[in-house]
Amino acid sequence: MDKRVDGRKADEMREIEAKVGIIKRADGSALFKIGDTIAIAAVYGPRELHPRYLQNPETGILRCNYDMTSFSVTERKKPGPNRRGVEISLVTEKALLPAVDLSQFPNAVVDVFVEIIQANAGTRCAGITAASLALAHAGIPMKDMVAAISVGKINGKVYVDLNKDEEDVEDATDIPVACTARGKKITLLQLDGNITKKELIEALKLAKSSCEKINKVQEKALLEFYKQNE
Amino acid sequence: MNNEYIISLLKEDKRIGERKLDEYRDIKITYDVSKNAEGSARCKIGDTEVIAGVKMDIGTPYPDSKDEGVIIVTAELSPIASPLFELGPPGSWATELARVIDRGIRESRAIDFKKLCIKEGEKVWIIFLDIYPINDSGNLIDASVLAALAALKSARMPKLEDDKVIYGELTDEKLKLNKLPVTITFGKIDEKIFVDPDSKEEDALDSRLSISVYDGNIHAMQKGGNEGITIEEVEKMIDIAIKKEKELRGVLK
After folding, report:
1. CB contact under 8 A, A79 and B168
2. What ipTM was estimated for this complex?
């Protein structure tokens, strides 16, 4: 058996922590921590959408924005948007969309803002998991919950939740995956690298079972919040 | 809760949450909130929350201060923190916030900039101090200053090899600070002056004054709000600011 750099088993995620209600001004908010990666998310809305030409009279729309603090990475990231952030914002939106029901809110927008406070790989997945929690906390009508995790292949073997050191291994294949909890559907799937069909299916199964574990932690965070605020 | 309610309370020297006119909400500092930063901290004043981080790099000095390091302060008013913030390039309020913090640190010479010179006229340390409000429940200025000072105070110099920064590796050497000038922000409604306006008081206030103080001396000031203030009022605010200085710096232990 190959040992992982931090001693984890192949199907073992880093330590997970989830909390809702962390940003008072927001309509919903959450923190999700996995190992040294920390994501926070805030939800504002439903609120009126500007500019008006973007409004949809049939349904409300979901708008996501992903950002990293300049100091979340070892080499400073220039504050503000970049191409990577724009793409991740888009895939975050697509990952969450199947889980929300905004049909009651024509012409409105639900805004989701994700900020990465500290980064050690898997930030988009942590952001999606936090965002799904924040949406639920905001009381947005939801058909499902979304959890996300990255799986990957290093030297021909499949692992869950690669950390930065593992992600940086040459020829490592990184696959961020999001799953809905009840529908068991994949709502985010990206891949960088080189992988066989057999390995990919194995990786996706690992992602699915890991997302189920994350979903339990999400449920617990929401329950804890409502218990405290009864 | 509307502006009239806040104004009527103030007439009797009262505020929401039974605060006194010269009383801050609870202040809490947490150090090292982001591992990859050279220094980082979170400041909470009541529900207001700001995180600040320090990153360092090597660059060239300004031509008028060849033997001194450089500090660059930015504030990102991410819409995560308030329903009033929008995406896009920094607006006027983000720019004002960053510049007020910058001046408080620069003009008081809070940092020993000469110690940040590597080779005169050629190579100096550049300190990037980035401020991220997480929740704006009022008085972002004071919370940002405290978060900034805490982040600077905890910052360690990165490892340097052949005048190149090795990112991700920090030395045990701390960033050298001379002093920690804190900022006290006042609101004024009618004739009433009070410290640490929360977001509801901010919506109602006529004018605002932020005073950066160290050792009883004033290092920076910034007036905001739409109404004027008198010299007597400025004097009164300075007196309170000097009295409050120790209490605020006390949280940076």
Report:
1. no
2. 0.88
